[in-house]
């Protein structure tokens, strides 16, 4: 039963599309042959071609990088490859899983040892791939490697109310970053399900989301990027310890983690009502601050009217996923489906096909620390950054327009 439940959790994003109303066709501009397509049918029984942008993005990325050149053990690569796994679960293309396994096997030895210290939450995110590969292959070395992350949490430093520090370093001591909840908690609940540790994993993940949300969520529903319990960081408000801005991807990480953990924890988990309250308040904030012109969200979310601000692709994908998933699971009012649809169209508008036939996803903020308004809006706007590619795949597997009309 446990393995079946994990399979359902890991593939939920790929299977959820059928319960959502279909979207109008949105085809990004192309300068070369279109992406691989599936055939849908209109009410009048006329065939309509719907590009499979997930397989197009995966095939393009695999053409650009081998498992050896895609990068080191990191959360952006881990996020992207998790998205690739969702595409594998739908398409059953063995190349997609083999690629993930070849990447992970660069770091996990035959005896299960892995040369990572796991002294930051960021370093734990790619641990989801270890759980996935154990689930798919049954090889015990992946369990042993994943266990190192689980055991690290026993001694990992926390704030006074139990929140995991963003990293076990002096520059991150006592700090909670909204990013961090996605780096550890989806891994944790999936680890618990796969290896019979759900009693601890579900309670810990729910606790982390509640602690972080309690500190970071503002009255407008959005979350501040970070909180410093010591109030000593250069960016921390001396009274509240909070960072000054609502940075969109930090809020996006939290939103995705929240729905993933709600999917995993039991209905009677004591913190579930609190987490649902945080999600519903956040959804209201997302609705209020969505850019009506593009359907996306601004890099600094509540300052869309300020000079230099710009709409960012990765967080817009994250919010589209979280809202659509929240509606499908009954966590959110159905009206948020319309918000998710607008965001989905807005992200697809950032996707194109180059002269080489490969996809290009534009408008993605590069990795970002905590800062002020000028810092966030000055971040590089990258194309095909893994933050954006991974978030796109997760969103597209939730919202892809099968049966386009």
Polypeptide structure, described:
- The longest helix has 19 residues, at 198-216.
- The chain is mainly alpha-helical.
- It has helices at 2-15, 53-64, 75-91, 94-104, 127-137, 140-155, 180-195, 198-216, 248-264, 272-289, 313-328, 336-348, 373-377, 386-399, and strands at 37-41, 47-51, 175-177, 226-228, 297-298, 311-312, 351-353, 359-361, 364-365, 381-382.
- The chain has 14 helices and ten strands.
Fraction of residues in helices?
40-55%
User: Please, what is the oligomeric state?
Assistant: single chain
Q: Count helical runs.
A: 14
Q: Report the radius of gyration as a whole number of Å.
A: 20 Å
Runs in which pLDDT lies below 50 for 5 or more consecutive residues are 11-36, 38-46
The main β sheet shows up as: 2 strands, antiparallel
Strand and helix order: HEEHHHHHEHHEHHEEHHEEEHEH
Physical arrangement of strands within the biggest beta sheet = 1-2
Measured distance between first and last alpha carbons: 38 Å
Structural class: mainly alpha
| Proportion in β-strands | 5-15%
Total beta strand runs:
10
Q: What is the residue-averaged pLDDT?
A: 91
Shape: globular
